[in-house]
Amino acid sequence: MALTTSPLQNYLSSSLFSATGNASTTANKPPRISIVITNAVRMRQWAVHAAAPETGTGSVGGFEEGVLVRPNWTGETPLSRFVAALISFKPLYSLLKLGARQVFISTAEKKSIPWREMTKEILESEVYKELESIQNNSLVYPDYYLNPFHAYDEGNLTWLAAAEAEPATMSMAMRAIPDASSVDEANKIMRGNWIRAIEQHHLTYSGASAVCDILDIGCSVGVSTGYLADKFPTAKVTGLDLSPYFLAVAQYKANRGAPRKFPIRWIHANGEDTGLPAKSFDIVSISYVFHECPTRAIVNIINEAFRLLRPGGTLALTDNSPKSKKLQELSPVLFTLMKSTEPFLDEYYLTDVEETMRKAGFVNIESLLTDPRHMTTTATVPQ
User: Which residues form a coiled coil (predicted)?
Assistant: First the structure.
């Protein structure tokens, strides 16, 4: 995509900053949304444990499941249809989108995440010079990827979305672990449990199979990719994403970070059809991607992961858990805002991911809550 103005100019002209640096959207601000969040019972068992039996409710991975199969604000429930009707009303949708954006930024900054400062730093940098070496100009984007996501009209195909991805990820960690004293502590719990789930599954079901090659599908700006590379320092790690802007930020930050023995490789490609050789990876990780995909894309990506993994290889999926008590009990304001920025959220919650994995040929499928909001599902390619 050609740029007629600099990313920073686009950012400033979008009126996200007022003269005093406070978040704003237009001259006529949307109504202030008041959100009351009750204090949850503090969770003490942060370590990953074996999954509890599927019957009944209770604690899985140390975190509490809700009483429903999925939140009643998804699928074909009356509440879900009512929210969908609200969102389909364009004037209200515009207000919801702006309100969601306000909530994203203000919530992050209340948690001491310098959202606007981090965004401005990226947009004032030389990051756009990375685009030419990353972008695959022959890539045809799937139709679903051209939808607005996360209150961005151009979805993930914009510098603003790429510049804000890291603070948004930090904010996600703080929402997942609300009792954490810092982002670092929240990430140690959220990312630590996820990494341990992958490691434990691979050790259990792949035996002495070494981890030599890792693929991170939907790597965004490389946060999850970096964690994988840190955990498996002798492996060659590849980050793959549909957004060249996200990848440009990932490469820019990686080039300015501590040098690695095996630098991360970044690829601009479609996770449904990567073009990479079959049986070329020991671990394929897909983190926080599927809730942004229609069912057909989820199926295609899982099938592609099966093709890419070597016998004994491990697939690890991490995303919102339909059984999360936290997500099932979201306030009406929060789940309405969430659905207004996630066009395929219902399809994700209605997709049986485990059954999709079985149909693709995976075995040893295990799912557990690795934090109060997110589920990690691991599986093996038969040897």
Answer: none
What sign results for the dihedral spanned by CA atoms 54, 55, 57, 60?
Answer: negative
63 strand-pairing partners: 60
Name the pTM for this structure: 0.84
Query: Which residues, other chains included, contact 370 with Cβ-Cβ below 8 Å and sequence gap of 6+?
Result: 48, 61, 63, 190, 193, 194, 197, 318, 376
315 within 8 A of 271, measured Cβ to Cβ: no
Phi-psi region of 228 (alpha: psi -120 to 50; beta: other; left: phi over 0): alpha
Query: pLDDT for 177-220, tens place per residue?
Result: 999 999 999 999 999 999 999 999 999 999 877 899 999 999 99
What whole-number distance in Å separates Cα of residue 38 and Cα of residue 45?
Answer: 21
Q: Which of 203, 268, 201, 195 is nearest to 233 (CA)?
A: 195
- In the chain the first and final C-alpha atoms are separated, in Å, by 43
Q: What is d(CA 305, CA 235) in angstroms, rounded to the nearest whole number?
A: 18
CB-based contacts of 84-88 (< 8 A; 24+ apart in sequence): 84/339, 84/346, 86/336, 87/336, 87/339, 87/340
